[in-house]
Amino acid sequence: MQNPAWMVFWIAVLLAVALAALFTVNGARFQERVRREGRRRLRSAGPTRDLVPDETGRLPAPVQRYLTLAIRDRARSVCSVRLRHGGRFRTRPGGGWLPIRGEQYFAADPPAFLWWGRLRVGPGVWVDARDQLVDGRASLEARLESTITVGNAAGPEIDQGGMLRLLGEMVWFPTSFADERFVSWEAIDDRTADAALSHHGREVEATFHFRRDGLPRMVTAQRYRDTPRGAVLTPWTAKLDDYRLIDGLLVPLDVEARWHLDSGDWPYAQFKVERIEYDRRDAF
What we know:
Order of helices and strands: HHEEEEEEHEEEEEEE
Shape: globular
Number of helices: 3
Number of strands: 13
CATH architecture: Clam
């Protein structure tokens, strides 16, 4: 007669193997689905356009200085971007940092993005997250082990956050800052300017703070933050650093995002761009 304990053991082993196989397959499916969406974003982008020499001349002085540095001698605008990043993320104030890797795809005309990230929450345990903005509408999705939905959000507050994210991340394709169809500027002083991104009847505003050398050091805004009581407008900052010249554009590779709470600052994302490519029409 078989030992019941051994039967339980082998059932547990088989169940663990089956779950591991399921999670692996679902992880590959999730990744491929996101990359299909990424290809659609890249291929939906309009063609590049010539950059008129005096195009930045109509902009406020700090923005003119920035774009003169960032765009340099580039003759044509960026139509699409793909990038990969590493870094770390934390899900609550004072919580531990968790490793994260991600991919992001941008279209400049019309402005849109798709981001996919994998957060390692423990040995062999991960959460896949997808954030996208298309036609001014944003959506968020998160799945434990690429299988169990732990987050799914959409609505006006998510739209606002997605558009602010896109506006701040245009520092990776700064030719879009001179496209008056979508972005407008107003100077505050010689080293600060307000930017507004408008698309599909929606508009968001953020303030760009420039360093002495003319490059943006941070972007600030009032952004909706999810709380147990619902979405709350909260001061938000993205810090920018480690500028490098890539394909004729001077862009930051280090980005830190943080919320400013009544209880203190909450830095929640620190990303390091590892690869960035322009005007490629396929996903990684």
